[in-house]
Amino acid sequence: MNISIISIGKLKEKYLKQGIDEYLKRLSSYAKVEIVELPDEKAPENLSDAEMLMVKEKEGIRILEKISEDTHVIALAIEGKMKSSEELAKDLDRLATYGKSKIAFIIGGSLGLSKDVMNRANDTLSFSKMTFPHQLMRLILLEQVYRAFRINRNEPYHK
């Protein structure tokens, strides 16, 4: 399975990079995982609704350029579907069973994802009704993908 995590924004925090590197190492025996880091659109602090829309659309174009036609896309969004770790594991197992070997998880910037990206998504996923920094979300997502592979292989992992 080939998994891409396409994320807007640069990761600067050393402790997050270390955690992400650890999960990438753990995942390497289960899948090929790559992180695609795209620059966020520079914008002033106080944006009008039209300016916010434009920022999301520009970021969305960059995201969509990184997704091939045969990729199953899962967009992370507050309004997405909340799932348990077991449900995510079952979803990934089902995708693999039915020949979907390319999966992309999309993490938007601080304003969220564009309509075009949401329309391209085959599924949505929410980890909480709370808002998390997109840098931290990468680490949380990698941990859950790792947990999913452990669940699917009936391998022990702390609960």
UniProtKB/TrEMBL annotation:
Example of a GO biological process term: methylation
Keyword Cell wall biogenesis/degradation in record: no
Keyword list, A-Z: Cytoplasm, Methyltransferase, rRNA processing, S-adenosyl-L-methionine, Transferase
Entry EC no(s): 2.1.1.177
GO MF annotations, alphabetized: methyltransferase activity
Subcellular location: Cytoplasm
Catalysed reactions, as listed in the record: pseudouridine(1915) in 23S rRNA + S-adenosyl-L-methionine = N(3)-methylpseudouridine(1915) in 23S rRNA + S-adenosyl-L-homocysteine + H(+)
Protein residues bound to S-adenosyl-L-methionine: 76, 108, 127-132
Family matches, as InterPro entries: Alpha/beta_knot_MTases, RlmH-like, tRNA_m1G_MTases_N
Enzyme class: transferase
UniProt key word Transcription: no
Family: Belongs to the RNA methyltransferase RlmH family.
PANTHER family attached to this UniProt entry: METHYLTRANSFERASE (PTHR33603), RIBOSOMAL RNA LARGE SUBUNIT METHYLTRANSFERASE H (PTHR33603:SF1)
Quaternary structure and partners: Homodimer.
Biological role: Specifically methylates the pseudouridine at position 1915 (m3Psi1915) in 23S rRNA.
HAMAP family per the UniProt record, alphabetical: 23SrRNA_methyltr_H
Protein name: Ribosomal RNA large subunit methyltransferase H
Organism of derivation: Ectobacillus funiculus
Gene from which the chain derives: rlmH
